[in-house]
Amino acid sequence: MTAFPAAPLPAAPAPGRAAVVAGVGGYVPPNLVTNEDLVARLDTSDEWIRTRTGIATRHVVSPGTATSDLAVEAGRRALKSADDSQVDAVVLATTTPDHICPATAPAVATRLGLSGVPAFDVAAVCTGFLYALAAGSGLIAGGIAERVLVIAADAFTTIIDPQDRGTAVIFADGAGAVVLRAGSPREPGAVGPIVLGSDGENSDLIGVPAGGSRQRSSGVPAAPGEEFFKMNGRATYRQAVERMTETSLRSLAAAGWQPHQVDRFAAHQANARILTAVAERLGIEPERQLSNIERVGNTGGASIPLLLAQASEEGSLVAGDRVLMTAFGGGLAWGAATVTWPAL
Ligand code: UT7
């Protein structure tokens, strides 16, 4: 495994005040796409997709449905789970904002009846939820907010080239959200140390070449297909395994947990083989891993909160479970965090 330069561990949370998970919600759009549906239009097979990615079905938005529609639904469910209708801020992680400008979060907040609260977007691709969780936790730790709605939503298929079999079989649409409230660092639900990192040297492994100021300011019109998402799958795969393993170990060290004390491993559902490789390196057996990739595919930033919401609803994640979360994606950006799951 590559040795990475050691970054300082996050400072211990301020005594007496921490962000505590008070609610969770997830949403996938109703339109289900099977591997057979993809085989009908792409040079691929059900067997290849299952064995190389672990995906059997995924949900995709119908024409006219945008990221904010997914975010509002997940946010509503998280607020309901928290028995709440009011928060002081909304943070939305997304790679597929409704528009380049303005941010999508204010519209989401207004549709949730939260008009007037600070609301902003966070762009960290598949690690978006953990970055947004850090932002939300920071608002609480800094005394700027008492309650924060953190949403991660991606209509990823809106930027995927339907003819690119390297990405079209993996990426899908969905949203997840948590409500954070101010509480004590020692109570269940308190968000543990969040470890984040990035590497702009490898920003070309994952991205959309056209549509931003780099291409627009060049005066050269976008070449056909450049508005679609591109990924160097194999290089990304290698980086994902190394970064998620390393950042998980750092988050565990900061929390004072050993890998054997993790009850539930909730990793970004990038690819089932990546998840197995990371869990093996951490010594976390399959029965301690939460997974929904077979049913929902890779939903980008939405992946972790959607997984937590579904697992909590289905009973595979219960109060008292020590949860390790980790993610990796475009940027490059990665992260990990711990939480002891609360009674919701
Ligand atoms: O979400 C966060 C960031 N993203 C990730 O973490 C995803 C990371 N990458 C991956 O999950 C995997 O690299 C992929 C699923 C994208 C690809 O799987 P792979 O095992 O790395 O395949 P590969 O790209 O090395 O390609 C192996 C072969 C190639 O054919 P040749 O050159 O060996 O003849 C590909 O052309 O598989 C071919 N191939 C496919 N065949 C059938 C690639 N995609 C497909 C496909 N169906 N959909």
From TrEMBL:
Residues 252-341 form the Beta-ketoacyl-[acyl-carrier-protein] synthase III C-terminal domain. The gene is fabH. The last Arg residue of the ACP-binding site is essential for the weak association between ACP/AcpP and FabH. Homodimer. It is an enzyme of class 2 (transferase). This is Beta-ketoacyl-[acyl-carrier-protein] synthase III. Residues 269-273 are annotated as: ACP-binding. Its main location: cytoplasm. The active site is at 126, 268, 298. GO terms for molecular function: 3-oxoacyl-[acyl-carrier-protein] synthase activity; beta-ketoacyl-acyl-carrier-protein synthase III activity. It catalyses: malonyl-[ACP] + acetyl-CoA + H(+) = 3-oxobutanoyl-[ACP] + CO2 + CoA. It comes from Actinacidiphila guanduensis. Its EC number is 2.3.1.180.
